[in-house]
């Protein structure tokens, strides 16, 4: 009999890749979709256009993390063996503008989900997508699963709360619950409001003559950037392990925003210095420092490893945007 998985945030970058991975492994997949999401523009459009998959092995349900009645109904209907909790307001900069809704969705939404699992007679395994933002200004470099939490933005605070509640419910109620401390991870499906995708898309648009320049904030800001397709494999592996735990998923390498810019513009044969301008509007009030992860636990216990290098990833994203923006027939 096929395993059943439920994914919150299924229409996002990670959710779409995870859906494909689970379907390839023979799962039946149920996804939670916010009522405001448009399925016609989602990253799952090829799957739900496939009549052999959609409503046979893939099922989408409208529900919100702040609507426990509807969410509970979806969980009972799906009766999942595994839950992958990926949903939440995940844009760090935006969390300063909407801190209350960020905490409501990311922190309290996770707590509600834990309470629902606690009440189930057959408790599914839970993977919670945490974030490197829980470390904020870390005392340890690189960070691992034992690093102290010191968030510096509303998103990081909300994720830190959710991270700790997952551990509390695991230890107190015996729920098989894992935290994946996810460092920045990108792909051609990354949202256009995230800096890597913004840069790659702009380089392609400038190359095609659609745009003339790119405005950015701090070019010296550094991140540990990996590939989303590698990271969803880590999510899956965490729930297949014999015991639950917390895992850092990272590359262990730092690259700057300027590095992203340079690779993206080199990919399309342009000198980035002619087109990129710094704009103080894009500077964050508090910028995390030295966020670089140590993934050795995931590598040793789960056999997880990354398969794509940073340069390869940024080039792929840029070429994908170049193809998508190119006029039909050009």
How are the secondary structure elements laid out?
Elements: E1 4-8, H1 13-24, E2 28-33, H2 45-48, E3 58-62, H3 68-78, E4 82-85, H4 92-97, H5 99-119, E5 125-131, H6 154-173, E6 177-182, E7 185-186, H7 195-207, E8 214-216, E9 222-223, E10 226-227, H8 228-240, E11 246-249, E12 255-256, H9 257-267, E13 276-278, H10 296-302, H11 310-325
Parallel strand pairs: 1-2, 1-4, 2-3, 4-5, 5-6, 6-11, 7-10, 8-13
Antiparallel strand pairs: 9-12
Helix pairs in contact: 1-8, 5-6, 7-9, 7-11, 9-11
Describe the structure concisely.
The chain folds into 2 domains: 4-186 and 225-249, NAD(P)-binding Rossmann-like Domain (Rossmann fold), CATH 3.40.50; 195-223 and 255-290 and 309-325, UDP-galactose 4-epimerase, domain 1 (Alpha-Beta Complex), CATH 3.90.25. Helices cover 41% and strands 15% of the residues.
What does it look like?
It is built from 11 helices and 13 strands. The protein is an alpha/beta fold. It has 2 domains: 4-186 and 225-249, 3-Layer(aba) Sandwich (Rossmann fold), CATH 3.40.50; 195-223 and 255-290 and 309-325, UDP-galactose 4-epimerase, domain 1. The longest helix is centred in the first third of the chain and has 21 residues, at 99-119. The termini are far apart.
- Backbone CA Rg: 20 Å
| Category from helices, strands and their pairing | alpha/beta
SS strand fraction: 15-25%
Q: End-to-end span in angstroms?
A: 48 Å
**Secondary-structure element series:** EHEHEHEHHEHEEHEEEHEEHEHH
Mean pLDDT: 92
Kindly report the CATH topology of the largest domain. Rossmann fold
Total beta strands:
13
CATH superfamily membership of the largest domain: NAD(P)-binding Rossmann-like Domain
- How is the largest sheet built, in terms of strand order? 3-2-1-4-5-6-11
> At the first level of CATH, what is the class of the largest domain?
Alpha Beta
């Amino acid at each position: 009999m096929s395993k059943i998985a439920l994914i919150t945030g299924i229409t996002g970058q990670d959710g779409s890749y995870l859906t494909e991975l689970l379907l390839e492994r023979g799962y039946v997949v149920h996804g939670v979709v916010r009522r405001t999401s448009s399925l016609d523009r989602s990253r799952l459009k090829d799957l739900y256009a496939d009549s052999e998959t959609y409503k046979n092995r893939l099922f989408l349900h409208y529900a919100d993390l702040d609507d426990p009645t509807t969410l509970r109904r979806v969980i009972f209907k799906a009766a999942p063996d595994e839950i992958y909790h990926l949903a939440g307001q995940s844009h760090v900069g935006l969390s300063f503008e909407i801190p209350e809704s960020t905490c409501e969705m990311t922190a309290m939404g996770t707590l509600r989900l834990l309470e629902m699992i606690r009440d189930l007679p057959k408790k599914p395994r839970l993977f919670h997508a945490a974030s490197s933002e829980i470390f904020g200004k870390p005392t340890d470099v690189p960070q691992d699963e034992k690093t102290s939490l010191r968030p510096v933005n509303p998103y990081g605070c909300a994720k830190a709360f959710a991270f700790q509640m997952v551990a509390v419910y695991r230890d107190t109620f015996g729920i098989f619950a894992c935290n994946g401390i996810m460092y920045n991870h990108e792909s051609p499906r990354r949202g256009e409001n995230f800096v890597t995708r913004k840069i790659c898309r702009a380089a392609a648009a400038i190359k095609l003559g659609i745009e003339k320049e790119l405005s950015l904030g701090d070019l010296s800001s550094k991140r540990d950037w990996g590939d989303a397709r590698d990271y969803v494999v880590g999510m899956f592996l965490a729930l297949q392990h014999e015991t639950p735990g917390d895992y850092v998923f990272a590359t262990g390498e730092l690259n700057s925003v300027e590095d992203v810019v340079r690779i993206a513009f080199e990919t399309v044969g342009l000198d980035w210095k002619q087109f990129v301008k710094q704009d103080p509007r894009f500077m964050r009030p508090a910028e995390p420092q030295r966020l670089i992860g140590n993934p050795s636990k995931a590598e040793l216990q789960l056999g997880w490893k990354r398969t794509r290098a940073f340069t390869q990833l940024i080039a792929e994203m840029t070429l994908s945007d170049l193809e998508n923006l190119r006029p039909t027939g050009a």
